[in-house]
Protein 1
Amino acid sequence: MPQPYGLLAEVTHRCPLHCVYCSNPLALLDRQDELGTEDWLRVIREAAGLGVVQVHLSGGEPLVRGDLETLVAECRRLGLYTNLITSGLGLTKSRAEALVAAGLNSAQLSIQGDAAESTDLVAASKRFDKKEAAARIIRDAGLPLNMNVVLHRLNLDRLDAIIDVCVAWGAERLELANSQYYGWALRNRDLLMPGKAQLDDAVAVYERRKQELGERMELLWILPDYYEPYPKPCMGGWAQNALTVAPDGTVYPCPVAAEITTMAFSSVRDHDLAWIWTKSEAFQAFRGTDWMPDPCQSCPRKEIDFGGCRCQAFALTGDAARTDPVCMHSPDHHLVQDALVRANQDKAEAAELVYRRHTVTTRGH
Ligand code: SF4
Ligand code: FES
């Protein structure tokens, strides 16, 4: 039985942004659905008991919860590394200091682009200034500043400028995450999918800047899988090394799996994490290679990419057990090719970006 080392604690779906590629489920949970502090503390203890060593506090925007310090302190008591994944909106100097005092180890700040216009275009927010302030607050609090930007057709041409911003703000690491197309991003795929020439230009920028920056800032390139011949080894394989606990306590093998509506996932309200990890039907469904259909079952790459992404297979075909359509051997590969044909036409056909909407209530818990 594999052992998880990472827990993604999605403490809330509440968020001040409206990103057009949001990776949270299409049906967002409300504040009244969220686990309370005691339940989260139990989840953290159970995760540590299972072997987890890293806890990523995420959302939505995790800062909307007032009990983050309590959760971080429990992680520290148990010797777990904690990372805050934040939009930066709502981060104050005193909050950062309180989190550091509780034991927070690092923070990952997301940006949407290099300027206020790009934040407004992609996230319907004008608060780029808040992000710059948050970067300063994170650094002043003594935390390593990791940054993240989702890349797509609307900002790939600005890659040089985006990297400049992160250098200027003092980031130690920048994750250049090409958008993945499930959940909300699938709705906006025609407008977000880059063309091949645009992507090639961006790869050249990435390689040049990686060389130039050396150890000053680490650049990490997350592949746009539609342009690859083989799928990504998503999550290192289903239920292999990480788990996600959603705001309401439902436990998933990956952050997107709530979209697989044909599967039933268990909750920490009904079972402990160890049972869910080892015994629940959902976690066992695609673990290992026995479940694989052909062409994966007879493919020499089956231990390399594990048949690709289950969420992407479901999003594109309605069947999570099919070969990821990104794979050139998949019988459904035409679904990916068709999307690329549209992306490489002069103009994408979709009319307008569809923004994520969610009401943010005040801090609680
Ligand atoms: Fe991977 Fe399956 Fe494609 Fe082989 S056939 S490369 S295992 S997705
Ligand atoms: Fe869920 Fe790939 S995102 S398995």
Note: Residues 196-213 form the longest helix (18 residues).
Protein 2
Amino acid sequence: MKLILLGAPGAGKGTVAKMLTEMDGSVQISTGDILRGAVQAGTELGKQAQAYMDAGDLVPDELIMGIMEKRLQEPDCEKGFLLDGFPRTIPQAEALKVLLDKLGIKLDMAVNIDVPRDVILDRLTTRRTCSNTDCQAIYNVKSNPPKVEGICDKCGSPVIQRADETEEAISHRLETYNEKTAPLIGFYENEGLCVTVNATNSDDVINAIKERLAA
Ligand code: AP5
């Protein structure tokens, strides 16, 4: 499958992407995870991205397209991919369309995971993430805590709260989403690719995706 996962911060894009990749071997491509990895590794990309990310602002489109142009041509993408957190702006969506046309790749759908704002705020303040950039497993202190407090079940690394999870950064990320990313729903509706799933349960999201893929 070749999917785009749309949805506000905290809608559950990363959680759903990880569940889907475990089912069919397609690869999750999260621009947020790639950028956090670059920040932790202290690369030039990380240095350029960090201030934007910590403030809850979007990283400039040119940096993101530079990453994605290379990433989508790596061999593991042939089995299918789930784009998590990309595209995030209309210029990114337009550039992605040109790139996929050039590579001869056809998207199956863009899934808009629609979750109420109060649920999102609650989830983001209680999310914890594995600090190991090769793992980045997602937990939630309320709904899905690690078995041993503060330690990742999968790799044993410390589980932390992300730097952009202060109340101020979260509310700025939600504003940025409404202004810059929500218009992508209309963009993919016009392309005949958008499916909106109103569900707070990740299994319901996955079942809706499977039904649409089978139709
Ligand atoms: P990114 O990492 O993409 O963050 P985001 O879109 O804000 O998304 P999140 O990771 O916050 O949420 P999610 O929807 O994946 O939710 P999750 O599954 O974790 O981006 C971070 C930053 O990088 C951006 O602010 C920007 O600066 C930059 N960036 C990234 N991509 C960019 C781009 N393309 N262009 C420009 N800049 C870019 O779930 C959230 C919580 O809820 C978890 O605790 C989880 O356990 C819990 N949860 C999930 N589902 C359920 C459920 N069904 N029931 C109960 N709990 C649940």
Note: DSSP finds nine helices and eight strands in the chain.
Protein 3
Amino acid sequence: MITSHILGYPRIGRARELKFALERYWASGGDQNARLLHDVRCELCMEGWDVQRAAGMDYVTVGDFSLYDHVLSTLELMGCMPVRLRQLSCDKLASYFAAARGGSAGAAMDMKKWFNTNYHYMVPEYSSGMEFDPGDGRWLAEEIDMAQAAGHRVKASILGPITLLWLGKERDGLLNRLELLPGLVDAYVHLLSLMLARGVEWIQVEEPIASLDMPDLWAGAMHAAYDVLSRRSPRLLLTSYYSFPSGCFDILCQLPVSGLHVDFTRNFRLGALRCFPRDMVLSAGAVDGRHVWSCDLSATARILDRARDMARLDDRLWVSTSCSLMHVPVDAATEAAVSMSVRPMLSFAIQKAGEVAALKIRLTHGNAGSAISHASPSRSFKPAVGFGTEDLQLTPRRKLGYADRARLQRSALGLPVLPTTTVGSFPQTPRLRQLRVLLRRGSIRLQSYMGAIRAEIEHIVRRQAELGMDVLVHGEVERGDMVEYFGESMDGFVITRHGWVQSYGSRCAKPPIIAHDVSFVRPMTLYWASYASKLTNLPMKGMVTGPTTIVCWSFARRDQSYQEVSLQVARALRLEVELLGSSGVGIIQIDEPALREGLPLQRAMRRRYLAWAADAFGVACSGTSPCVQIHTHICYSELGDVLQTMSDMDADVVSIEAARSNMSPLALLRGFHKGVGPGVFDVHSPQLPSQEAMASRITAALGIVPPENLWVNPDCGLKTRTWEQVNAALSSMRLAVDDVKERL
Ligand code: GLN
Ligand code: ZN
């Protein structure tokens, strides 16, 4: 019999219950809120298991839930929270959140993008002599007990030791974190024995490191670890995802584990299965967990059939989702407002579990009874507004090179040395959010909404002038989200009502869905940017989200290449950028914070992606005059991977996140010959940056970047800060710049 399961279920809840419970607890603490949080946790776990059971999964997945982040929860489980945060006298829950969010005991742990997704994980900190101890199995044991008590057949899920080490960083004199592996493996052995004692049949040990180009040293470590683990454990399902593990499939096949889970939806090579071991289970990640389109059951069943034959799997074939369903919303059935041309094609977590079950039925009984038709969104060609075909053939580059543009912009803008600016957004106050809710409900008229936004912009512009900023922004107060706003304003997107996915902790995003050809329909930011620019004589920087980021942070179509979709978006943005430029907005920032995130996991494919991203950016800004200064902003990046692209892109100035990583990105900027603004304070930390710290960061930057190229700005937008924090941080930033300038 074929076995069905999913790798994981969304943890935020269909009505974002986790978010609200977390925020209540953070705001007021207390035993009662802690109990409420615990109850919400139990309810969400139970609901997820019930959904899996009802859909017909043979196992329910236990262990994928987390109160903030599953990497942090694994560290807690293994008793290896960062040493610097261990001396806290507070309770377990409070110290868990102190590690995630910082507090009186010290700074939060670093946060990074999880593989090529828009989810963020907490970066483990390993120190020398670190010990691991899973105790009595902590929350995992509790959840297994809870699921079993509810009568579920349990497959436990844990992040594997190799990936857990890989994701972390060394501290306090530790030179090589692989040194810690033997101790960590012992702790896993202990944890596995606790699960064995509970009668857990299968353990999904996740090693997404296998989807990367795994260095030999780490592949060797994987072998050593699983040699030990498999001797002691119930059946291990070694699980990789986000890409078929082409580079190391042979290595995985040689591991002494009972089963392998691989992604069938990305870079899959059927032929690789020819040498699949005769004694292992193959869990086929056939239902795509990274997009929201329903699965073509017939085509997928055919591939699974061929896989079954090729590897002579018979009952050793399992059917599953490509990855955890944490990257898709909970239930497409609640999207009543989505048009009927699209709605039947949507598939969120609940529907995807259903698709896994349907595939199992097809593989068991053939095609009988499979009447549902599943199709991709149709291609509806719509010529891009305002362009002749010859325009679309233009090389996606601005007419003049950087040096010539820089000369023109210097005289057009007349900026001081070390110009200060911000990355775009100002506080999204509760009042602003409330206004948007009222507008959506129809409780206030559009005119009064717009009046309130204008008043907010006036305040933001005035404050920046008072704070001494050299280049102002309008504050992005008209947009609730930097991608959804553009999705709402262009043709081709579908906006969902409840389609939330977790970004980190309690933060969620509601990615728009690209369902048709994208085109420009009306100016999107022009009104607000030009309104703001008329309020002041200081230069105003317009704000547009870039094509790569819009596509990465949306659910894109499946029937078009990434390149086609991002070029369509870029063409629509090009009109916006052109309009902004010709209306007198002399500086325009085209944000690309998702540039690094979209990077393919395997190196061989990266060059092509980056060339497309630079082309799409070029298309977006190639319509403007060379006198208009184009900025871009990049954050959450390992900058080294995108540095060349940053300089290939047609931007004149790039702002990057730097303070949060201790200014380490500076080292890469030697030889970067354009304007650059390495952030001088971390916008995510509740601790206020001091003037001295900022001055020394600016001085450090001046050691690498020539003064005529250096900009001074925060790491990222200020929308999550309070006005009190913003006022204090920006006035210290101003003083820090003046201080450095005096010494120039
Ligand atoms: N301009 C955006 C902002 O300031 C950039 C956000 C981001 O980089 N994620 O909010
Ligand atoms: Zn940013």
Note: Residues 423, 593, 633, 635, 657, 716 surround zinc ion (ligand 2) (CB under 6 Å).
